[in-house]
TrEMBL record:
PANTHER family listed in its UniProt record: AGAP008170-PA (PTHR45712), PODOCAN-LIKE PROTEIN 1 (PTHR45712:SF5)
Domain of life: Eukaryota
Pfam families xref list: LRR_1, LRR_8
Region forming the signal peptide: 1-37
Keywords, in A-Z order: Leucine-rich repeat, Repeat, Signal
Organism whose genome encodes this protein: Gulo gulo (Wolverine)
Cited SUPFAM superfamilies: L domain-like (SSF52058)
Entry protein name: Podocan-like protein 1
One CC-aspect GO term: extracellular space
Keyword match Signal: yes
Family annotation (SMART domains): LRR_BAC (SM00364), LRR_RI (SM00368), LRR_TYP (SM00369)
Keyword Repeat: yes
Amino acid sequence: MVTWCPVWGHPDPSVPLQRLSLLLLLLLLSGPRPTPGMEDAAFPHMGESSQPPPRACPPRCSCPRADTVDCNGLDLQVFPDNITRAAQHLSLQNNQLQELPYNELSRLSSLRTLNLHNNLISSEGLPDEAFESLTQLQHIYVAHNKLSVAPQFLPRSLRVADLAANQVTEIFPLTFGEKPALRSVYLHNNQLSNAGLPPDAFHGSEAVVTLSLSSNRLSYLPPSLPPSLERLHLQNNFISKVPRGALSRQTHLRELYLQHNQLTDSGLDATTFSKLRHLEYLDLSHNQLASVPAALPRSLAVLHLGRNCIQWVEAARLRGARGLRYLLLQHNQLGATGLPAGALRPLRGLHTLHLYGNRLERVPLALPRRLRALVLPHNHVTALGARDLAGMPGLAELNLAYNRLVSAHVHRRAFRPLRALRSLDLAGNRLTRVPGGLPGGLHTLRLQRNQLRALEPELLAGLHELRELSLAHNHLRIGDIGPGTWHELQALQVLDLSHNELSFVPPDLPEALEELHLQGNRIGHVGSEAFLSTPRLRALFLRANRLHMTSIAPEAFLGLLHLSVVDTAGNPEQVLVQLPPTAPRQPRAGGS
């Protein structure tokens, strides 16, 4: 008998081929299962049980999603390799990169967001062709680097470009031009002059709504800006002129920032703002304007003219801006005749008028009736007549602090027409008594830094809603506070009597009081009944008085269950303070 030795590829001809196939199948089914992941290697056709390969991610970076690579703040000095080609969002901010290798960047053709904020990248380290292959890039952030010129080419797909806080002196036609989807461009805090901006810088980019060119070296408003602009930032430049027609196409503009420049009246003309029919916010503060600009649009809601050289407000200049809500004229040179009676009356919707730091000698007459806030501190106002405030029945805030008001020249009915008044600031004047006829709806009354020598109960009567009263830095003594002075102030929560001449805590303080300032007086003793009328007191300031170690009676704070701050620093001796057992404790230096 001849025996055949089975050899793979030469089967025994006496064994049918079907039998051999069946044997092989049984071996596969009965044998041990392969380890996970091995099925695909051995049998790539068995896809149903396959596992995805591990995702590549650069060392130390994180890849929270298949399309995101985050290498933020790793002090990287070299562009990381092993970035997946599928990356759509690459974050490399807060590193020390000095250059972008073209070969690495060109691989990442799927990128939509590239964040290179706060590195050391120079223009020499950024090849001209660096972004050519990034045809899907929408957001690029290269702020806070060392670029001296902008990239010559950025992708057509771009929507947001941030090159702020570099040293850029020049941009090119295709840096931001021919970008139909571009919406926002940030170039502030660079070194751009008008020569560095080509006339066709935004040609073909008709969707730009935000452009920031603030803190550069521009000497005039650049022409040929995108007509689609809604927000234009040009503050902190050297702009002395807006060329005629420079803003004639920007009819969608809503916000224009020109503060901190060198604009004079001759740098503007009657047409400068006339075409901006959607303009709502215009900031011309910190310039050298001597008058209010002409032909302001009706849509304007906020006009900021502070810190100029305006000596006179001409009514005709504001007649067109009938929609104005906020007019800021602080720190100009408005004198006795600087704001003629009725000059602002056409502004029927005016809400707030700021006149801080001028030379006005009286409250302007015939102001808009709907005015809600009149801010007039640091002027030369010496008197208030019976009718000076009568034309503003809706006034809620009046600030006349640091003027030259004396009690003899404040009419007893000066404040009576102001029934809606909630805040009155008369600090820093020369008043010797509280004005009479105060509106009953007052919430805040500030009389600090005057020359008050008496508090008369009848002058505070009727102030049932008063919540805050400041009488600091006056000359009040205990004997100057008449009996019943606090009786009707039942809503008072904050009382400041600091820096007066009080020798002890005033009696019969309001029950609602939560905060009491008595620092800088002459208080040498606090008796056991000092705070019986103020059970809600939370904070008490007694520093810089004449208190000694045992000057405060042990029972003084017994009923003050909410008291958490007692400040007794700056007294001749450290004062022992014993809070009630249930009171919350917040230790303060020199106190408890």
